[in-house]
Amino acid sequence: MGWDAYANVEKVDGLMKLKNPLHDKIFENAFNNVKRYCGYEFPEWIRVGNLEGSTAERMLSQAVNHIRGYTYAENEWSAEKVRQLNKKAEWWRCEYDKESEFAFYCAKYFLRACALVGVSIKFSY
C-alpha cells in the first residue's frame, strides 16, 4: 500500500532509478533530505517516487485533511491538486514520535517532490 508518483522506474547498475533524470534527481534529493533530518536508515521507496507505509500515509493525511475539497478516500490526486495540497499542507498538525519521525519527513518531502515535478499521485494497494 502506498502513494505512488506516476513515474517509470528502471534498474541501472543494480539500483532502481526513475527514467526521467529530473524526476530521479528531485526524488533523490527528497531521500537525502529525509536522511539528513533523521540521521538513520529507513525504507528508501521515496527514491523511486513511492510513499510506503501506513504511518507515512497518516502523516500526509494529517497535513492536508483540513483543506476544503480534499478527501483521503480519493484514489488519485491530479498534478494540480498535488500542487495545491503542497502549498496548503500544515505539517505542524502531524503527531509523531522518534520512531515515526522518518515517516513524517518522507510524507513531507514526497509531497513536495511530486509538486515540483508536476506529477499526479495515485493510491495503490
Strand order of the largest sheet: 4-1-6-5
Instruction: Count every helix, treating DSSP H or I runs of 4 or more residues as helices.
Output: 4
- H and E order: EEEHEHEHHE
Find the structural class using helix and strand composition.
alpha+beta
Total count of strands: 6
Mean pLDDT: 82
Radius of gyration: 14 Å
Q: What proportion strand? A: 15-25%
Low-confidence stretches: none
The amount of helix comes to: 40-55%
How many individual domains? 1
Account of the 3D structure:
The structure is a single chain. The protein has a four-stranded antiparallel beta sheet with strand order 4-1-6-5. The longest helix has 18 residues. The chain contains four helices and six strands, in the order βββαβαβααβ. It has 125 residues and is an alpha+beta fold. A hairpin with a 2-residue loop joins strand 2 and strand 3. It has one domain.
Q: What is this entry, summarized?
A:
45% of the residues lie in helices and 17% in strands. The chain has helices at residues 21-38, 54-64, 79-88, 101-117, and strands at 2-5, 9-12, 15-18, 50-52, 76-77, 121-124. The strands form 2 sheets. Strands 4-1-6-5 form a 4-stranded antiparallel beta sheet. A two-stranded antiparallel sheet has the order 2-3.
